[in-house]
Amino acid sequence: MPEKCPVCGFRYEIELGFYWGAMYMSYGLSVLIVLVVGVSLYFLANDPPTWVYLTTVATTVIVLTPLLFRYARVMMLYFFGSVSYDPKYQRQL
Ligand SMILES: [Zn+2]
């Protein structure tokens, strides 16, 4: 993670250990994924054997881990870091 935002210069590390809370956000997101995938399998795959649940859920969570890691930190910044979106700093693609 970079120390500062390359666009607006925002310093990401607000205080020491600020992102410890992001672990709980990540855990919550993982539980949400487990529930959504599990319920989807139950209804779409007509209640498959347990190993199908375990394999599918584990694979989904592992594949999405980089996204969960980043979004948990973003949620932490938005909820507890007093950060909000400002369109004037939007990058032109
Ligand atoms: Zn920025």
**Overall pLDDT level:** 91
What hetero molecules are bound to the protein chains?
A: zinc ion
Derived from helix and strand composition plus strand pairing, the structural class reads: mainly alpha
Give the H and E element order.
HH
Report the major sheet: none
Low-confidence runs: none
> How large, in whole angstroms, is the Cα Rg?
17 Å
Tell me, briefly, the overall form: elongated
Overall strand count? 0
How much helix, percentage-wise, in residues?
55-70%
Strand content: under 5%
CA distance, first residue to last residue: 22 Å
Q: Work out the helix count.
A: 2
How would you describe what is shown here?
The protein contains two helices and no strands. The model has no long low-confidence stretch (mean pLDDT 91). The chain is mostly helical and 93 residues long. The longest helix has 31 residues, at 50-80. Helices cover 59% and strands 0% of the residues. It has helices at 21-44, 50-80. α1 packs antiparallel against α2 (50-80). 4% of the residues are buried. It has a domain at 21-82. The chain binds zinc ion. Zinc ion is lined by residues 5, 7-8, 10, 89. Zinc ion (ZN) is lined by residues 5, 7-8, 10, 89.
